[in-house]
Amino acid sequence: MAQASPRSGSSKDCASKAIQTQHPSDVYCCYSDAAWKGASSAGGMGWTFTNAAGDTRSQRAVACPFVASALVAEALALKEAIKAAISLNIKDLICFSDSRGLINMITASSSVIALQGILHDISVLSLSFSSICFKFVPRLSNTIADRLAKEALSLYLN
């Protein structure tokens, strides 16, 4: 699966030599999150991209009408964020998520049946980057993506 850097074999926790030796302004941080409402099976996804100086390059929120679980919503949010990074021509990316389970599955190359296709897509999309890694971040450090995801879900449900 999509490990810290599919091409350089770097460690799972972003200690990638490729990322460490890049000019810091070339590396973008992507924060993604999802909100899920079990009663309606709807999900909201949000993500934001910042550069090393902390400047926001882009942020987005979308709703998804049929999502099987909160974990699936988290995986879909990350997948959509990676697709957005590709469209922005970002080459070096650190992906942060507050879903420890998702990050563990990606970095340990494990899966559950419900996520196999999405994790495969993330792995394939990861090949588009010079360097990419995946890190867990506490929810309190992911407030912008969290707000975007909740807003998308709320707008969809209303």
From TrEMBL:
GO molecular function, one term: nucleic acid binding
Domain RNase H type-1: 32-152
Gene3D superfamilies: Ribonuclease H-like superfamily/Ribonuclease H
SUPFAM superfamilies: Ribonuclease H-like (SSF53098)
Domain of life according to the entry: Eukaryota
InterPro entries according to UniProt: RNase_H-like_dom_plant (IPR044730), RNase_H-like_EbsB-rel (IPR052929), RNaseH-like_sf (IPR012337), RNaseH_domain (IPR002156), RNaseH_sf (IPR036397)
CDD domains named in the record: RNase_H_like
Name this protein carries in UniProt: RNase H type-1 domain-containing protein
Species, as recorded: Brassica campestris
